[in-house]
Amino acid sequence: MNDLFAKIATEFETFKNEYESLMEKGVKAAGPRARKSTLELEKLLKEFRKVSVEESKK
């Protein structure tokens, strides 16, 4: 579970950096990268939910 949390934290940091590039620096190419990062976060968060539910059943 710690490994999964680390992946989520890393991906969120990536999203944050791309968002800042888009909004503060005006880098238009950062928009698609930020959106891609949100899709990856969605997958990771679903996996976290699955693992968390399994752990709570033990």
From TrEMBL:
GO molecular function per UniProt: DNA binding; structural constituent of chromatin
One Pfam family it belongs to: Hc1
InterPro entries reported in the protein's UniProt record: Hc1
Job of this protein: Might have a role analogous to that of eukaryotic histone proteins.
Family: Belongs to the histone H1/H5 family. HCT subfamily.
Protein name stated in the entry: Histone H1
